[in-house]
Amino acid sequence: MADINLIQQQHFVLSVPLIADRILSFLPAKDLYRAAQVCQSWAEIAKKIKRKRKESSCIFWKQDAEMPDEMIITSLTSYVKTHLNEVSTEPALSLNFVTTSADSTVNCIFDGCYPTVLPIQCKTAIISCDGVIGMQGNQCVEVEAEDLVAVSSFFLPKLPGVEMKFWVKKDDDSFKKFISSLTKDQPIKALVLLSTDFGIQTPATKGIDQIMTEQNNHLAVAGAFAEDILLPECSTLAITFAGERVKAASVVINSYVKKIDRLHCPLKRLKNYGLPEDRSFAFMFACVSRGVKHWKEKNVEIKEFRKMFPNTPLYGFYGQGEIGSNTSSEANESTCGSHQENTCHQFCHSYSTVILLVSIC
Fold first, then answer.
1. Architecture per CATH, 1-52
2. CA-only gyration radius of the chain, Å
3. What is the pLDDT of residue 102?
């Protein structure tokens, strides 16, 4: 009898909306989804909690120098599952940058692990590159071209007032249709373009020029040429951010920037755009030769970025060529000094670094 009374008391407590709201608010996204299946009341509470949660999340994993290769899959799979089972927001976008030495290993993990822990509707891409940039706690870290396996993953939830579009190239005509669909909707604020089709006159880079022209150059652009995009028959990947709550800006750190004091100018330009930083994230795409080979020490550009943007998470990779512009989604652009480093229609770069800052207001 006592057990029945206890169960009834527990049921009564959990049926009180304020108490249930408080308890369910501590659940990670996966458990919150399960709780929403219990009853209509909990489903409504879970829906309200999801709307409040807007945090992005990330994974950064690097093979220890002493770790034998046969332990990589077990260790990384365990790390990924543990993290994704504990994230507070349900990812709508998953970008995964992996070192080239990790291709076969990561394919096994993503094929076997991600489908079991990510929502079916989550758009996922895996990019193979020469080195990765990501977040480890509050610290920004990088792994340049090495024989060790490293993975940097970025997970972004669906956000109210923010429209994300994800396109994978099938053929040139499909990209033209994608561009046309973008220009018919609300203006795009930011574009991330990743490709293995090296060259200036590709359909993808021509598409940027078309969008820029139609939007009077009010578009932030960043991307790179990667070693491989690990999706079936995919050579180009485009991700766009639009919506009234989105603001974005991008800068190019050109090849002639070889001293730290000159590095401050493009970073200051990015800062001077005045985008809100409390809900922001950034992408950095750098030439594989701009790491230690260029600066003679590690993490130089990342450290300088963190000095100006201490609370903005940073993700990206080292590639074989960069795509970007010195532009903003906002009309009131400002620059560091009177010297413009490139015109809006020169998007392809080499031996450079491109940074895209996206802010959700």
1. Up-down Bundle (1.20)
2. 22
3. 63
